Description:
By secondary structure, this protein is an alpha+beta fold. The chain contains 2 helices and 9 strands. Helix content is 21%, strand content 26%. The strands form 3 sheets. Strands 4-1-5-6-7 form a 5-stranded mixed sheet, with helices on one face. Strands 2-3 form a two-stranded antiparallel ribbon. The longest helix has 16 residues, at 85-100. The model has no long low-confidence stretch (mean pLDDT 88).
Amino acid sequence: MSVHTIFVCTTCASKWENGKRVGESGGEKLFRRLQADHTNWKLSQEFQIQPVQCMSACNRSCVISFASPGKNNYLFGDISSELTPDQVQGIFDCAEKYYVNLEGSLPWSERPEPLKKGILARIPVVSVPSENGKVLHTTR
């Protein structure tokens, strides 16, 4: 079984004073919110939720990403740090669509709220050249 990850930027929506981050960032709140509901999600064994420092989309915070070897990776922004239960479920529903699609494709028309808007990037699958020159793809 492949590893699927929801990355959550924990630097998003930080407050800074004198060059130091103070208090809890919006990204940390978002991470805790998703983590709290993760254990009750039917795909909790298939996905890990991982905090990361800065995903370089500061003007579009808060930011999450779906990633898995052999699949397109997606970066979403403009996500509230104060998600409602329906919005959390929308993120998990979108992750389920990502999980079942072999290429990890998430067409706009199939994405649930809150991920219909706020798409920042779809990063294609990385191809790995083999010793004989043929291109190998990371497999599921």
